[in-house]
Structure formats: structure tokens, C-alpha cells
Amino acid sequence: MTTGCWLDGAPVDAAGRSLPLVDPTTGEPAGEVRCASPEQVEAALAGARAARRGWRTTAPGERAAALRAAAASVRDHADVLGDLLVATTGRLVGQARGSAAVAAELLEEAATTGVLDAGRSLAGSSGAIDVVRREPRGTVAVITPWNDPFPAAAGLLAAALVAGNTVVHKPSERSSGPGAAMAALVAAALPPGVLQVVTGDGEVGEVLVADDRVDVVAQVGSTATGRRIGAVTGARGAIALLENGGKDPLLVDAGVDPAWAAAQVAAGAFTNTGQLCTSVERVYLHADVADAVLAELVELARGLVVADPADPDSQLGPLVDERQLAVVAAHVEAARAAGARVLAGGERLDRPGAWYPPTVLVGCTDDMDVMTEETFGPVAAVRVVADWEEGLRLAGSGAYGLAATVLTPDTAHALQAADELEVGTVKVNAVWGGAPGGSADPRRSSGRGRGYGPDLLGELTALKAVHLEPAPPVRR
């Protein structure tokens, strides 16, 4: 395993700028992240370009076998990868190790399904053959986030690689060590140059996005970064696949069990300290059940064990760093100043590190940042609504469109929500879950393109129509 660069089949120490690392649990310095130098980024791009022909002409079965070998390696190292993520971002140890195991599953899934669709035949004339072929697009830059780096990277890497593309991957500088370590395990199972790994921040990412040798940029991360990527790639005719921020709503209908509904809200708002793309960030409670759900939710929030993420008994770890804590605290304070009431939490914990407790706010209004901007912290921001129709209208509003959850015993309401909510994923009666392979398009400020599921392969391949007729015999 290596936490540095991986270039042309070998680990390489990054030789560029240094970025400080801070332990989110203690607030103490924890070393540094070295960025790839400009020369190393150039070498990564050149190496991926040089490897393109050899990889695209490799038999699909051989590409799939390489991904299976990579999946086995990631699975064998899941505990080590998870522990590295705990130390870097403060994620709970069980969740971190499980996240690495999910990455292995995604690699295997792509190895199984990614070689099945090679194109289709067309109904042409009887004396000719007409087909549509799927071909790799070329070189893909994969730029991934810090909060859940293993599955986010594995899904994109696997789809790009099994389709015959070469890849240059840059994990987030906020989880550079874990991200580079997993990517290196994948790269070690592939021919040299097929997967290049570079470390660094936005400065390194800018070079990848702007380079004409990159045909597709696949990014999971902030909306601001996604918009910048979309502008740069659009200007030069490249493709951008973007899964960006969210402000996911959860709507609780009348007639639900209050304890169950509160547990769903808590799971959505507090898992990974609220630092997931599809975390629940705004909650709409039907007036008929609001008081009962809030009472249960406050009890759950106050009872969560907020402790060292390496402790298996801990239920909530720290935020990733002081910068993220400042965003969360600012949203809560602004809401409080504008009239929202804090029923649980609401103040950073008095201990070293980036600790913020599970927080429940009620009386939130649509003009508050905590209801409109991505908070990315353990905050359940609640608005009570008069009826289902008001709640559905509010849940469907806003600048983002990543996912939404509704809790309802009414089948008609469930079907209405699935039809009317303009988001990529609608979840009914379960804030987490879903079958593997689901494809979805994020809407509005949440991005564009199918960033996961079998349809992702379509984004990472180009269609080519081929018409074949026999040449006429030579006249003598």
C-alpha cells in the first residue's frame, strides 16, 4: 500500500507542495499531505495517454479479471483502509471498514456487468452488416471527495476501466492518504499507465480538468467545484459527470409511528456526523405527528455516544476539520438568531478536535441557510407543515436535486412523491438502502450525468455506427 502517487505501475513519493494535516479527533497536527509536482502530473497524463491503445484492445474478459483481482486486494486490506480513514477524517471505525468493503463490491459488480453490453446490430440491407459499437472515450480524470472516498472512487474507477478507458485519479486532499491507498491497490492489478494516481488539492485538479488529453472528467464533490469543471470542460468540448452538493429533504406524513420516523430522521441527519452527500439536511413534519416525532428525535439525539471514532462503541465522531465545523456552527447560530429553537445540541463540544453534537432545530424557515445551503453536519433542521401537500411542495423546492425521502403509510402519497419530486433518487419509508445498480440523474445544482449504476457505462463509452459491405470482385 502507498499513500502517495502511483505512476506508470509503481509507487512514487509526491514531490510538490506540502499541505498540513490535523487530527480531527484531537485537533493536533498529524503530518502533511504532499501534492504531486507539475512534472508528476504531466507524467501521469502522458502515461495514461500512452497506455490507451494497449488497454482498449485488451480483451474485455481480461479487463474484468483485473478488476476482480483489484477487488480481492481491496477486500483483503479493508480493515487497514478503514483505520486510515478513521485517522484522517474521523469516520466511525465500523463504517469506515464497511465503506472499504463496499468499494470491493463495486469493483466486482463492474467486472460482472461491464463486459455484457458491447453494442447492438441494426436492421440494414441483406447484403451488409450494420452495427453500433461501444468504444472507450479515452482518458478519464476521476476526482473524488473526502467524506466517503472508497465507494465514490471505486464506482467511477471500475466503470471507466472495465469500459477500456485509462484513468488519472486525484482523491481529495482532505482524505488523500486513504484515497491514494485504495487507488494504489487497484492500480497494482492493472498494466502500467492504465490507472495513474496523483495527490493534491484544487490546483492539481485544475490542471487535470483543463488538459486536452482528458476526454471525460468525473467528479464527486462540491457544487462550486462542479460548476467550475463544467465550464472548463464545456469550453474545450470534453464531458463532465458531476455528482455535487445536496440539501436532501425528509418528509414525514401523518399516520406514521413517531419512534420509527424519529429513528429514520436521526439516521439520515447524524450518520457520519451528517457528512454524506445524501444526508438528510431539512425535515418537514406533518403537524399531526410533529410533537411526538420531535420528542423521540430529541431523546435519540441526546442519547447518542459522541466519542473517539476508533472506539467501536462510539455512535458519532468529529467533523472532518475546523473549516467544516465553522460552517455548521454558522448555520445553527444564524438560524437561532432568526428565531429557530435548539432542542438538542447547538454548541460545539468543549474538547480538543472538531467536535459538534447531534443537533435538533425547530421553527426553521425557508430563508435560513440551514434550510437552503449545504450544512454537511449533524443537524436536523425541522419545519412543521400543515398537511401533506404543503410538505411535498416544500420538499420539492430549492436549488438542489440529489435525493429525497418520504415516510408515509399512504400508498397514494408514496406514488405522488415518486412522480413529483424532481430529484435523482426518491426513497420511500427507508432513508438508507436500495438495490445495487440503481442509476439516477442528479438535478439542478446537484450535478449532471449518471455517476453510478449500469448507465454509468454509457456515459464512459462512445457509440460508433459501422456499415460493412463486401467489396465487389476484381474485374479481369
Description:
This protein has 476 residues and is of the alpha/beta class. The chain folds into two domains: 260 residues, Aldehyde Dehydrogenase, Chain A, domain 1 (3-Layer(aba) Sandwich), CATH 3.40.605; 181 residues, 3-Layer(aba) Sandwich (Aldehyde Dehydrogenase, Chain A, domain 2), CATH 3.40.309.10. The chain contains 16 helices and 22 strands. A seven-stranded mixed beta sheet has the order 14-15-16-13-12-18-19, with helices on both faces. A six-stranded mixed beta sheet has the order 9-8-7-10-11-21, with helices on both faces. Strand 7, helix 6 and strand 8 form a beta-alpha-beta unit. Helix 4 crosses helix 5. The protein is globular. The N and C termini lie far apart (67 Å). Keywords: Oxidoreductase. It comes from Quadrisphaera setariae. This is Aldehyde dehydrogenase.
Features:
2 domains, 7-stranded mixed β-sheet, alpha/beta, 6-stranded mixed β-sheet
Summary, kept brief:
With 476 residues, this protein is α/β, with parallel strands linked by helices.
SSE diagram, text form:
Elements: E1 5-7, E2 10-12, E3 18-22, E4 29-34, H1 38-50, H2 52-56, H3 60-76, H4 78-89, H5 93-113, E5 119-121, E6 129-136, E7 139-143, H6 149-162, E8 166-170, H7 176-187, E9 195-197, H8 202-210, E10 216-220, H9 223-236, E11 239-243, E12 248-252, H10 258-270, E13 280-286, H11 290-303, H12 322-337, E14 341-344, E15 359-362, H13 369-372, E16 379-385, H14 388-395, E17 400-401, E18 403-407, H15 411-420, E19 425-428, E20 443-444, E21 447-448, H16 456-459, E22 461-468
Parallel strand pairs: 7-8, 7-10, 8-9, 10-11, 12-13, 12-18, 13-16, 15-16, 18-19
Antiparallel strand pairs: 1-2, 3-4, 5-6, 6-22, 11-21, 14-15, 17-20
Helix pairs in contact: 3-5, 3-7, 4-5, 4-7, 5-6, 6-7, 10-11
